[in-house]
Amino acid sequence: QDLIASCLDTVQDISAKSGELLLFSDSATFLRAAEKKGYHTLGTDSIGHISFDSSRAAIDKTFIDLFTMSRGDKVYSVRGKNLYNSVFPMYAAIIGDIPYETVQVNTAKSF
What's the whole-model pTM score? Predict the structure, then answer.
């Protein structure tokens, strides 16, 4: 829960500077917590890594997430201790030819 709270604090900092955000994650727990805080997501159905889950639903969800990210104004990737260092958001930014920025989650807390 501390990690989720720290990530949401970081998202709040980004939102304060950039405005409304649409959040993506492969963690349904994080997305549900974000939704409770009023953030927008594309839901938690069919979340999966297509390397491990080749179901049609997981592939469709992955494509929709990637495509939606690529159509934004900018892609932010929150990184930090105990977070997977994904290149997925960077690929979305490349596809959409939009700015990409990594943001470090507050690492002052110990997880």
Answer: 0.84
